[in-house]
Amino acid sequence: MTQTHDRQEGLTDAQMKALEERYDPEVRFRPLPPALGWLTAAALFALSCYHFYTAGYGIPPATLHRGTHLAFTLALVFLSFVAWGRATAPAGGPLKPLGLPLVDWILAISGAVAALYVPWIFDDLAFRVGDPLVIDVVMGTVLIAVLLEATRRAMGWPLPVIALLFIAYARFGQSMPGVLQHPGADWENIVNHLYLTSQGIYGTALGVISTYVFHFVLFGVLATRIGLGQLFIDLASALAGRFAGGPAKVSVISSAMLGSISGSSIANTVTTGSLTIPAMIRIGYPRHFAAAVEAASSTGGQITPPVMGAVAFLMIEYLGVPLTTILTAALVPAFMHFFGVLVQVHLEARRRGLRGLTKDELPVAWTVFKAGWLTTLPLFVLVTILLSGYTPYLAAFYGIAACLLVLVIQNLLRHGPKTALVESARETWDGFVVGAKYSLSVTAAAALVGVIIGVVTLTGVGFKIAYMVTSVAGEWAEDVFAFLSFLPFEIMDVPGWTLLFTLILTALVCVLMGCGIPTTANYLIMIAVAAPILSLLGVQPIVAHFFVFYYGVLADITPPVALAAYAAAGIADANAFKAGNTAFRLGMGKALVPFVFVFSPSLLLVVEGFSWSEFFLATLGAMAGIWMLSAAFANWLFAPMRGYERALLAVAAILLVAPDLVATLIGAALIAPVVVRQLPELRRGNAQARSLEQHQ
Question: TRAP C4-dicarboxylate transport system permease DctM subunit domain location, by residue (predicted)?
Answer without folding.
Answer: 143-606
